[in-house]
Design a protein that fits this description.
With 119 residues, the protein is an alpha+beta fold. It has helices at residues 7-16, 34-49, 85-93, 95-98, 101-107, and strands at residues 22-30, 55-61, 76-82, 108-116. It has a single domain, classed as Alpha-Beta Plaits. The protein is 39% helix and 27% strand. The protein has a four-stranded antiparallel sheet with strand order 2-3-1-4. α2 (34-49) runs antiparallel to α5 (101-107). The N and C termini lie far apart (30 Å). The relative contact order is 0.32. Residues 35-108 form the DUF1330 domain. Pfam families: DUF1330. InterPro entries: Dimeric_a/b-barrel (IPR011008), DUF1330 (IPR010753).
Length: 119
């Protein structure tokens, strides 16, 4: 399972509306020992993301689901507000941010990144 966006993913993401503010929903499934590693990533992320106007809205551990098909449970949820799709794209290309992406990759076996907008 991919845990990081590809170049094609980012191109399609930006094609929709590059200046649209978003809240990115991150659904996370940890590798063995990955929870502590992901905490290290979040520390790195917070330091880097602020330069791009991003803000962690919520980071929490998943509990046993009330309604879910087998395999749909997640270990953690992270919500991050970005001023625009472009800000997200600029952040993931930033060398300072990229210095810590290996931590995220090592910590996860699966992730979903779902951009959302208010209704």
């Amino acid at each position: 399972m991919a845990v990081n966006p590809s170049g094609a993913d980012m191109k399609a993401f930006l094609a929709e509306d590059p200046d649209q503010p978003i809240v990115m929903l991150n659904l996370l499934r940890f590798a063995e020992g990955g929870e502590a590693r992901y905490d290290d990533y979040v520390t790195h992320f917070r330091a880097t993301a602020a330069r791009f106007g991003a803000e962690v809205v919520y980071f929490g551990r998943g509990l046993a689901p009330v309604v879910a098909e087998p395999g749909q449970e997640w270990d953690a949820v992270l919500l991050v507000s970005y001023p625009s799709r472009r800000a997200f794209s600029e952040m993931v290309r930033d060398p300072g941010y990229q210095e810590g992406t290996h931590i995220r990759t090592e910590a996860l076996v699966e992730a979903t990144l779902q951009p959302t907008v208010p209704r």
